[in-house]
């Protein structure tokens, strides 16, 4: 018997809506196609003298591109200003930081492999900002999705700007006289708007770029969301333009051309538009009759492929297919678009300036040898690699080191091209600097202090299963080397950094502990006192032991909730796992967070969340509420999701 879940209900409804939209679109196109015969004027009215020409104009393109650049500059400057102000405030307030309820400053610190700022920077935010954040960032969970209240406002503004730029600018005189030209102008303006949207979307799809780092968008999480918004706006624009061209303009233009030829040759054939001319017109002849039509048709196919491949269903069930089709369709689009219209050069600024630079940078990602690949728990693999170093100097490729909580893309095939398309993101869980005297045969010429990077990979799909199977066969020779991408997720502002907060609360569910392991490690090596709480929910305790065995547990208060096999909770033993406070069943987050709040009523707290969306929404909303965040204590929420969209 079929079992109905909320998920399956949503999918069925979604499919029904799609079918309805397709049917409706098809009927509309049919209707428009037949109605075009009536809208085409008879040939007798055409003459080279009375033929009105459409006046080209690019106001929407110039205005929208100008607006985007202006917005970018304004955001970049305000961010720099905020950064400077926060630093000035921080140094002024540093002495007044309430540290009564914090552990004493550590006497010594070990050599840390992490890139941390030396001083904690307290935040002092105005009450209105805290209040606005509570409303703006409030997360709702309708139909198993997450929507923030502020997103609605952003969406409305986004749509409003688009409509304003298309219909708000006065029309050219010829377009005012002729309704057809009026439609054509609107259609072209929509296309110009779509061009700008798609160019921005391409720029936002890159993994890392100085252009986005200036805005504080330091990893894919923030840029991919905007990539989606701009791409959707672009799709709608392209769809509108294509529908207009297909249903109105192509036929009219084609017939107009034929009429002019007939009039010019002074052949008296009566009114050929009604009969022979329509009969001779086939779909293919129409498409190839003009290079704009042909390239437009190819571009529509590429756009459709981009849209379909990026659909959540495809991404969930065949992520590799999504990557391959998305990249292929994008390259196809870039190749044909220049022949469509010269104005698409705008698109190339984004493609060449950001996307190609990103691809070239990623092509140079170093290949590092794997030094450890072990099954540490059922369905869980630990991967250890050396930090990449320069071949000639032996110095680390990234001298600034790593920042806790960062993730990187890992390519497991040995082929550069494959890794470019099919690399996968994993959080860096631990970075351990080896002793200065360390010498390893696998790293000849190593002169610096190398670090070993560890990460945990849980089987969750085809390729992680392949990796797991390979490790379980213990085929040591076949162990892959790994291509390590640039670590992403480095916070740029002081108010985003862990070391700026005297209290850190880390909430994790399942494999979501991986980014927080490095935070616990980094905080234990900090000179400044930091209170770290970890609330971790797992199904069984086997992965707990496996993942924390190399972590210094004494510097954080660990609370682990086992949801299934209570019997598997290890009996109290003198080993360091004794530091973990085990519980059975799911945690009551509201109560736990409230207890922590009462313990630290007047300090700023960073709440790290890497869990299921329901947990993220519950804990995040609580931390942003006026009970937790107010001018005397600010709870900053840092969310890590293992999916970008
Ligand atoms: C920032 C970030 C950090 C992560 N850290 C860890 C970690 O520390 N440990 C861990 O076990 N997992 C982590 N993941 C999840 C991990 O990337 C996926 O589980 C893994 O790539 C699945 O690979 P697969 O080929 O087996 O699955 P597939 O069958 O290919 O896909 C399964 C699901 O994994 C996701 N996925 C697959 N490939 C990618 C990709 N290239 N980019 C984004 N999502 C993808 C998709 O949502 C897909 O639905 C992280 C994900 C992100 C986005």
TrEMBL record:
Q: Could you tell me which residue ranges the Ferric oxidoreductase domain spans?
A: 192-335
Q: Where in the cell is it found?
A: Membrane
Q: Which GO terms describe its molecular function?
A: oxidoreductase activity
What cellular-component terms does GO give this entry? plasma membrane
The Ferric reductase NAD binding domain, residue ranges: 503-610
Q: Name one Pfam family in it.
A: NAD_binding_6
Q: Which residues cross the membrane?
A: 58-77, 153-173, 193-215, 227-247, 291-309, 321-339
The protein's name:
Uncharacterized protein
């Amino acid at each position: 018997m079929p079992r109905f879940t909320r998920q399956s209900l949503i999918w069925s409804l979604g499919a029904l809506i799609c079918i309805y939209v397709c049917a409706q679109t098809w009927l509309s196109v049919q209707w428009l196609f037949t109605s075009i015969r009536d809208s085409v004027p008879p040939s007798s009215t055409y003459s080279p003298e009375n033929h009105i020409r459409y006046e080209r104009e690019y106001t929407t393109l110039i205005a929208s591109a100008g607006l985007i650049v202006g917005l970018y500059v304004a955001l970049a400057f305000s961010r720099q200003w905020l950064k400077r102000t926060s630093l000035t405030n921080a140094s002024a307030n540093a002495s007044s930081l309430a540290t009564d309820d914090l552990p004493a400053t550590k006497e010594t610190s070990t050599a840390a492999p992490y890139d941390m700022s030396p001083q904690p920077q307290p935040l002092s935010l105005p009450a209105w900002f805290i209040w606005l954040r509570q409303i703006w960032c409030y997360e709702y969970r309708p139909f198993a999705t997450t929507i923030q209240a502020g997103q609605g406002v952003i969406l409305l503004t986004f749509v409003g700007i688009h409509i304003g730029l298309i219909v708000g600018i006065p029309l050219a005189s010829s377009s005012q006289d002729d309704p057809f030209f009026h439609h054509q102008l609107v259609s072209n303006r929509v296309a110009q708007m779509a061009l700008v949207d798609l160019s921005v979307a391409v720029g936002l799809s890159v993994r890392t770029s100085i252009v986005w780092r200036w805005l504080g968008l330091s990893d894919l999480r923030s840029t991919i969301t905007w990539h989606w918004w701009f791409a959707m706006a672009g799709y709608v624009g392209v769809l509108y333009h294509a529908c207009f061209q297909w249903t109105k303009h192509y036929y009219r233009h084609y017939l107009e051309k034929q009429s002019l030829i007939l009039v010019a040759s002074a052949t008296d054939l009566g009114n050929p538009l009604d009969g022979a001319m329509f009969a001779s017109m086939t779909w293919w002849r129409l498409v190839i009759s003009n290079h704009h039509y042909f390239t437009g048709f190819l571009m529509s196919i590429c756009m459709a492929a981009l849209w379909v491949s990026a659909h959540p269903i495809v991404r969930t069930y065949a992520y590799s297919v999504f990557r391959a089709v998305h990249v292929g369709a994008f390259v196809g689009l870039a190749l044909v678009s220049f022949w469509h219209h010269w104005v698409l050069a705008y698109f190339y600024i984004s493609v060449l300036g950001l996307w190609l630079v990103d691809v070239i940078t990623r092509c140079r990602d170093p290949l590092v040898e794997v030094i450890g690949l072990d099954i540490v728990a059922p369905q869980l693999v630990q991967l250890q690699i050396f930090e990449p170093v320069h071949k000639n100097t032996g110095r680390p490729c990234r001298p600034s080191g790593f920042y806790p909580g960062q993730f990187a893309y890992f390519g497991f095939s040995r082929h550069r091209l494959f890794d470019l398309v099919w690399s996968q993101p994993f959080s860096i869980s631990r970075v351990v600097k080896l002793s200065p005297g360390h010498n390893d045969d696998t790293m000849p010429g190593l002169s610096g202090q190398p670090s070993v990077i560890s990460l945990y990979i849980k089987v969750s799909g085809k390729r992680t299963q392949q990796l797991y199977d390979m490790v379980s066969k213990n085929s040591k020779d076949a162990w892959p080397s790994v291509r390590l991408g640039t670590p992403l997720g480095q916070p740029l502002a002081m108010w985003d950094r862990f070391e700026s907060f005297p209290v850190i609360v880390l909430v994790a569910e399942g494999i979501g502990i991986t980014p927080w392991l490095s935070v616990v490690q980094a905080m234990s090596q900090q000179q400044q006192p930091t209170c770290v709480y970890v609330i971790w929910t797992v199904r069984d305790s086997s992965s707990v032991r496996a993942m924390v065995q190399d972590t210094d547990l004494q510097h954080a208060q660990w609370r682990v909730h086992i949801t299934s096999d209570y019997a598997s909770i290890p009996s109290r033993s003198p080993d360091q796992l004794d530091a973990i406070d085990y519980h059975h069943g799911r945690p009551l987050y509201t109560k736990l967070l409230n207890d922590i709040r009462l313990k630290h009523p007047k300090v700023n707290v960073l709440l790290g969340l890497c869990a299921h969306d329901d947990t993220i929404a519950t804990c995040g909303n609580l931390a942003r509420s006026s009970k937790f965040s107010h001018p005397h204590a600010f709870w900053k929420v840092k969310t890590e999701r293992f999916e970008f969209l």
